[in-house]
Amino acid sequence: MGSIAAAPAEAMFILDSIPQAPEDPVYSLVAAYEADKSPNKVDLGVGAYRGNNARSWILPVIRKVRPRNHIQRSRSNHECLAIAGPSEFISAAQKLILGADSPAIKNGRVCLFQAVSGTGAIQLGGALLLKFHEIAHCLYGFVAATGIS
């Protein structure tokens, strides 16, 4: 996110008073690995199956169903994602929702993240905001098609 100097006072108050959680050491390791430009680097993070060639090993069941999955045509190697989701997706979603020339994006006033459906992640985010601020009047959500909210 960019600077919040140009953000409205309300937005700065809401975000600045929420204490930052400690960084997860597992994701710190992943970030350090991705930032390292050495050709000899080794990923010692959790959540990845690797073969003797140090490449991701795709489980046989995934290889079997992958050709039938017309939606998944990505470059995915089935590694764990960053906590907020893939940065390219987040950036593209911001521009799609608010427009590429959005002042809110340019001023760093937009916070987007990806959450897995059905996990309650969005509800937990709202609960976090409500814990520190009585802002129920500006939290909007939806009831899923399954009837589970």
UniProtKB/TrEMBL annotation:
The keyword Transmembrane does not apply. InterPro entries: Asp_trans, PyrdxlP-dep_Trfase, PyrdxlP-dep_Trfase_major, PyrdxlP-dep_Trfase_small. Keywords: Aminotransferase, Pyridoxal phosphate, Transferase. GO terms for molecular function: L-aspartate:2-oxoglutarate aminotransferase activity. It comes from the Eukaryota. Its cofactor is pyridoxal 5'-phosphate. One of its GO terms (biological process) is amino acid metabolic process. Homodimer. PANTHER family: ASPARTATE AMINOTRANSFERASE, ASPARTATE AMINOTRANSFERASE, MITOCHONDRIAL. Belongs to the class-I pyridoxal-phosphate-dependent aminotransferase family. This is Pyridoxal phosphate-dependent transferase. It comes from Aspergillus tamarii.
